Amino acid sequence: MSQIVSDACETCPLYNSAQLKKLGVNVDNADFVVALAGNPNTGKSTVFNALTGLRQHTGNWPGKTVTRAEGGYNYNGKNVKLIDLPGTYSLLSTSTDEEVARNFILFGRPDVTVIVVDASRLERNLNLALQVLEITDKAVLCLNLIDEAKRHHVTIDARSLSKRLGIPVVPASARNGEGIPELLETIHKVATGEIKCKPHRIKISSRQINKAIEDLNQKLLAKYPDLPNTRWIAMRLLDGDQYIMDAIKNGDFQIAS
After folding, report:
1. What is the pTM of this model?
2. What stretch of H or E contains 234?
């Protein structure tokens, strides 16, 4: 499947390595950083284990009691650091787990975010998937537990789902190793730019709200030109997101530049 991480080329740059290190992730030997996101009970840890084998360790996020699992693998000569984010149902920062997951995707800017969903309960998992796609445009949907879906006579048209979401969709059963080679290949192609994602984004019908978002977006771009996805941040500010409001007030967004 994949070769376990060996000594990496230290000259391979990560465009946001300083911020990743601030988030507690050592990327000195990595060519790409991949985040693993998903609801609880989707088999996310099994996907993580299937990708990393025994090359993994756990610890806490800086200043948090939330556990972080890290692992690595080598694919096509590239060393990949895999970060298993806390299992969450949303990214609205109403809990520490949600805050950690959201901030890593937003400020850590992983090269790829793999969204693990339970194929037998797809509808309840799509809320988180759509929220992730509001933050990043480099993602892969892993339709895990596809064997369970088949057992319950659930059929999913992965190609149509991919078209609707604007990102690659890979059916898998991580506990059986099914789909893992395809997942590795797809992650690699998204990370290298061979696959271009055009993720689904929320369309707001209100002209007044759209104008408010765009006005605030332009102000954010002027003040923080390197900040990722200012439109999403503008929406969170208008929604009264306290964490984002505090970050603006304290100038914490400077760390992302």
Report:
1. 0.82
2. helix 230-238
